[in-house]
Amino acid sequence: MRRRAKKSHSDAYSVEASLRQMRAAVQAGRYHVHPHVFDHVLDLGISPGELQGAIEKAFLEIDARHYKEPDHVFDPPGHGFVWESRYFGCRMYLKFRLEGRKPVCWLYSLHKAAF
Questions:
Q1: Are the CB atoms for 97 and 22 separated by under 8 Å?
Q2: Is the pLDDT of residue 5 over 90?
Q3: CA distances from 95 to 2, 4, 59, 74, 103 (A)
Q4: Residue of 101, 40, 106 lying closest to 78 (CA atoms)
Q5: Residue 52 in this model has a pLDDT that exceeds 90
Q6: Rounded CA gap, 70 and 95, in Å?
Q7: What is the C-alpha to C-alpha distance for residues 82 and 4, in angstroms, rounded to an integer?
Q8: Cα(59)–Cα(19) distance, integer angstroms
Q9: Quick check: helix, strand or coil at residue 7?
Q10: How many CB atoms are closer than 10 A to CB 37?
Q11: pLDDT of residue 77
Q12: How confident is the model at residue 86 (pLDDT cuts 50, 70, 90)?
């Protein structure tokens, strides 16, 4: 039996709506972190125990003006943001995706911006 891919949340097509939905999902604890994010935050000097707080700080720092249109289609698609982070003390890149009806927020990238 083949599993169907989860669909993006319908609000995922608007940056402002996606940010609202993302913040609501994070506040409700409906978010997941892709495993490769852990490697990048270790590079920033953040321990696994500090990750949740760092994620919440990053989500509070970004807004629609930080949205970065993707240069290439990456799998999975999502919303990327580049900003000068006060918390991390450097230029950062964050990518998330909303999935499901609630929705659930998936964090796919959180690292120093390479561009």
A1: no
A2: no
A3: 27, 22, 10, 11, 16
A4: 106
A5: no
A6: 10
A7: 31
A8: 9
A9: coil
A10: 21
A11: 78
A12: very high
Residue from 106, 98, 90 nearest 41 by CA = 90
- Name the residue with tokens 């919440």: 56
From the list 99, 108, 92, 97, the residue with the least C-alpha distance to 44 is 92
Q: How many CB atoms lie within 10 A of CB 111?
A: 18
- C-alpha closest to that of 112 among 4, 39, 25, 22: 39
CA angle 46/77/9 to nearest 5° reads 100
Tell me the domain boundaries of the chain: 12-112
pLDDT tens string 6-17: 566 655 678 999
Are 111 and 42 in contact by the 8 Å Cβ rule? The answer is: no
CATH of domain 12-112: 3.30.2310.40
Whether residue 6 contacts residue 100, with contact meaning beta carbons closer than 8 Å, is answered with yes
